[in-house]
Design brief:
- The complex is a heterodimer of chains A (315) and B (259).
- With 315 residues, chain A is mainly α.
- Chain A has one domain: Orthogonal Bundle (ABC transporter involved in vitamin B12 uptake, BtuC).
- Helix content of chain A is 68%, strand content 1%.
- The longest helix of chain A has 29 residues.
- The radius of gyration of chain A is 20 Å and the shape is globular.
- Chain B is globular.
- The N terminus of chain B is likely disordered.
- The longest helix of chain B is centred in the last third of the chain and has 16 residues.
- In chain B, helix 4 packs parallel to helix 7 and helix 7 packs parallel to helix 8.
- Chain B is an alpha/beta fold.
- The interface between A and B is medium-sized, with 19 and 24 residues.
Chain lengths: 315, 259
């Protein structure tokens, strides 16, 4: 595989991580705790979409090699994950009178419940969307990139969602109120912002984006009850790298972490791939260590910028 | 008038010879026998005071006397344990701050009183979220009154100087055109001449008819711009009366104004 192909994979994987990271960062900044059920919210979205796809999968024409039914299933997955997250907020987190550590521990329990329910319904095995695999896009093959139209669909969808969120945050009343609440919740209430409503919208948006990430992860790899939890540490790395609480930092961190993760196979053959590196030079590390490399880079960046790429002190 | 030490806050209020601070019935805002504090730590002890329409009242007293706690209790950031907080006759004790704003009371906290990551314009828009009408004219009016904000309208609030932040914090609260404004230590952390400018702004806001209840660490300065004053000590009103009278009172002077 060429370096360009690894980069392309990084872009696809990074798009998925970005979708998951934004929600985690948004919930952290407004609900005030690190939500360990965020990964399993992705799983909830993926399984909901999988079930919906079973009913509507054959619907409609194809867009980028995906039937329109897939996008309908995506929307249902996003909606159900949002409802589940809001219900969890209202029934579990909101009534609890505990600090942010208490909420964090609670969210681990919530994650177990989500996963347990999914395993009861679907078992512990891998499964996948019944969508035929595509051949790589011919035009890119000469450049050493084997990328399918499904990959393009994932990246394009992520770009649309991220642009939509940016427009929401910057140009709508709800977005400004969300930024104000994240900045200073007490002053937000003093200004007349009904922050309890803002918090509900935050769960809707955060869980919705996580679910979209989960559906795309399911399309990219496969669907399993552990898929969201397994990726959660990487998502946390992205959020912390970007500057926890910053949505734009999460976007940058997510993309960076996704690309680094996928570039790990290049490390042992740096000398062969890059002209200025001595022939034969390489960092002998296997792909199993991709996540370790991710964390190493995260630590390195934090040593230079302790509050992350877009953290408070940096801006 | 207050050369004796009044045993209770009610007596203290009755002592106010100006009359405007005295009668709770004319008061736009009154705090009646309130106990309160943080968690289970009591700060306010049977505290009473009142604010008439259009006046400036200043709360002074040593650190820990409960001055800021009074404002937080009035504004619903703390719930009174007992007693009442009345606004235009209605008991608003324990009402959430985001609802109290809608009643016509504004609050300028002492610290972290602007949204640092939002622009000046966005800060002002946040000040008006509870208004149903077009914010344009109100915000334009505030830019006219505080020209320093106009030049910086698209800058992030965290780039403002201390004095400019204080102006923005006022302006944010004024977007609602409140009848009563609670201000916590407007001069805190400011250089003396900047503090004077902030007090000029307090007077300018008051001249438009907004009653002001202000906490001020610089007691002489605070009283000198106020109509009436309350000296708080250990959660109760120790002295109350017209601001000029308190400034001239030898005992208040000796105990609370640094001689």
């Amino acid at each position: 595989m060429s370096v360009l192909e690894h980069l392309a994979n990084g872009l696809v994987f990074g798009s998925i991580i970005v979708l998951a990271s934004i929600g985690l960062s948004l919930v952290y900044s407004i609900a005030g705790f690190a939500n360990f059920a965020h990964g399993d919210t992705m799983t909830v979205g993926a399984y909901t979409a999988l079930v919906t796809f079973g009913f509507v999968g054959t619907l409609g024409a194809e867009v980028l090699g995906l039937p329109l039914g897939f996008f309908l299933a995506l929307v249902v997955g996003v909606a159900v994950a949002a409802v589940v997250a809001v219900a969890t907020h209202l029934l579990v987190y909101e009534p609890l009178e505990v600090d942010s550590i208490g909420l964090l521990i609670t969210s681990i329990g919530v994650a177990f419940v989500y996963r347990g329910v999914i395993q009861l319904g679907f078992g512990t095995d891998f499964t996948e969307f019944r969508i035929p695999l595509l051949r790589p896009i011919e035009a890119l093959v000469p450049y050493g990139i084997r990328m399918t139209r499904h990959d393009v669909a994932i990246v394009a969808s992520a770009v649309v969602l991220v642009a939509g969120l940016h427009a929401l945050l910057q140009y709508t009343d709800l977005g400004r109120k969300m930024r104000a609440t994240a900045d200073n919740p007490s002053l937000a209430r003093v200004s007349g912002i009904r922050t309890d409503r803002i918090e509900i919208w935050t769960w809707v948006i955060g869980a919705g984006l996580a679910a979209a990430g989960g559906v795309f992860l399911g399309l990219y790899n496969n669907v399993s009850p552990r898929m969201g939890f397994d990726i959660l540490l990487v998502v946390f790395a992205a959020v912390i790298l970007g500057g926890i609480g910053s949505v734009y930092g999460a976007m940058a961190g997510g993309l960076l972490i996704g690309v680094i993760n996928q570039l790990t196979p290049v490390l042992p053959r740096l000398g062969r791939e890059f002209p200025l590196v001595p022939e034969g030079f390489g960092i002998p590390i296997g792909v199993e260590y991709a996540n370790a490399v991710v964390f190493l880079i995260m630590v390195a960046v934090l040593l230079v910028r302790p509050s992350g790429i877009a953290g408070e002190e940096a801006t | 008038m207050s050369d004796r030490e009044p045993p209770s806050a009610t007596d203290a209020a009755d002592d106010g010879s100006g009359g405007d601070a005295a009668d709770a019935a004319d008061a736009v805002l009154s705090v009646e026998h309130v106990d309160g504090g943080y968690g289970d730590v009591q700060v306010l002890d049977d505290l009473s005071l009142s604010l008439s329409a259009g006046e400036i009242a200043c709360l002074i007293g040593p650190n820990g006397a409960g001055k800021s706690t009074v404002l937080k209790t009035v504004f619903g950031l703390l719930t009174p344990w007992s007693g009442r907080v009345r606004y235009r006759g209605d008991d608003i004790g324990g009402t959430a701050p985001e609802e109290i704003v809608r009643e016509g009371i504004g609050y300028v906290p002492q610290t972290e009183n602007v949204f640092g990551s939002l622009t000046i314009e966005e800060n002002l828009r946040m000040g008006g979220v509870a208004r149903d009408d077009d914010l344009g004219p109100v915000i334009d009016g505030l830019y006219d009154r505080f020209p320093v904000l106009t030049e910086k309208r698209d800058a992030k609030a965290r780039t403002l100087s201390g004095g400019q932040r204080q102006v923005l914090a006022f302006a944010r609260a004024l977007v609602m055109e409140p009848d009563v404004l609670l201000i916590d230590e407007p001069s805190a952390g400011l250089a003396p001449n900047t503090a004077d400018e902030v007090f000029d702004d307090v007077l300018a806001v008051n001249e438009l008819g907004t009653a002001i209840l202000m906490v001020e660490q610089n007691a002489r300065k605070g009283l000198s711009v106020s109509d009436s004053g309350y000296v708080l000590d250990q959660g109760s009103v120790a002295f109350a009366g017209e601001a000029d009278g308190l400034l001239d009172d030898p005992e208040v002077s000796r105990l609370y104004l640094g001689g």
